[in-house]
UniProtKB/TrEMBL annotation:
Signal peptide: 1-18
Protein name per the record: YtkA-like protein
Keywords: Signal
Origin species: Myroides indicus
Length: 296
């Protein structure tokens, strides 16, 4: 009887220990899924190396760019815990007369990739190209905390003009004297049928130094296939609505075949007035000049 009691207590104790270990280290049981990416640039600051990468292996202006930031401790290889990791971007420009100016651009702030504490992903909405180091260029600023220390770094970036073959993912419009940017976020696991569709709208404030979310609009989308008689998807898609939880405009986009899609955009104010984009008739061969593109 004593042996049975001792064995039972031992099993319970092992279960408690295992549960505590799991709670203290929630990432240990999760296999991280890090998207395939090519290194763009890296920089060592103090004892840390910051590696910047994305799927394309470069950044493009006038576009939404995904970014992955990996942080490596060069002294303590066992240290993979980095907290409060954040980023910001600044464009530095030198005018023909030598006058210098700077502005920022919208971003989706870094967050850890599930199962990791040293690999982060976010988005950079570069509003223009910058390929002249020291003259016209972008700077990526990253801050992180580890072992009780806060470490900051600045990395000069090359941001290339968007090529003709690269898809349109960032637009700009004016309303009531303000400038707004609208960004399309990547459609994850895109497929024929219904897909989750997310857009963000930002208002340019303080001469382009700040980009708060703009929430007072309604966005309508009309996907067309220009290479297939400009046909649509056979139905009217519900307007995207702003979500205060995600600070994005959320909805569903439908594709009824694979290929190149031209997504006509209509932005309306609270009075249901069109403030950006043009309505496209069902049988029209001409699309709006305010649009996004998808190809899969």
């Amino acid at each position: 009887m004593k042996k049975i009691i001792y064995f039972t207590l031992a099993v319970i104790a092992m279960g408690i220990t295992a549960a505590c270990s799991s709670d203290d280290n929630p990432n240990e049981s999760v296999n991280p899924i890090i998207p395939p990416a090519k290194e763009i640039i890296s920089k060592t600051e103090s004892n840390l190396t910051f590696i910047i990468k994305n799927k394309e292996g470069r950044f493009t202006g006038d576009a939404t760019n995904k970014v992955i930031v990996e942080i490596i401790d060069n002294i303590d290889s066992q240290n993979t815990v980095f907290n409060n990791t954040r980023m910001g971007i600044t464009m530095h420009m030198t005018m023909a007369n030598g006058h210098k100016m700077s502005h920022s651009a919208p971003i989706t702030q870094l967050k850890p990739i599930q199962g990791t504490t040293n690999v982060f992903e976010g988005e950079l909405m570069f509003t223009m190209a910058g390929t002249e180091p020291g003259v016209n260029y972008w700077v990526l600023e990253i801050e992180t905390q580890t072992k009780g220390q806060t470490i900051k770094t600045k990395i000069d970036l090359m941001v290339y003009p968007r090529g003709e073959s690269e898809l349109k993912t960032l637009q700009k419009f004016q309303y009531n004297g303000n400038t707004y940017l609208i960004a399309m976020h990547e459609i994850e696991h895109i497929k024929v049928g219904d897909n989750s569709f997310l857009l963000s709208v930002y208002q340019s404030d303080n001469h382009g130094a700040e980009f708060p979310y703009a929430k007072d609009f309604t966005i309508e989308i009309d996907p067309r296939m220009p290479t297939m008689a400009n046909h649509g998807v056979g139905k009217i898609l519900p307007p995207l609505q702003y979500s205060s939880a995600t600070e994005k405009y959320e909805g569903i986009i439908t594709f009824n075949m694979t290929g190149y899609w031209y997504i006509n955009l209509l932005v309306k104010n609270n009075a249901n007035e069109i403030i950006a984009g043009q309505f496209v008739e069902a049988d029209s061969q001409i699309n709006s000049d305010f649009y996004f593109e998808v190809d899969f």
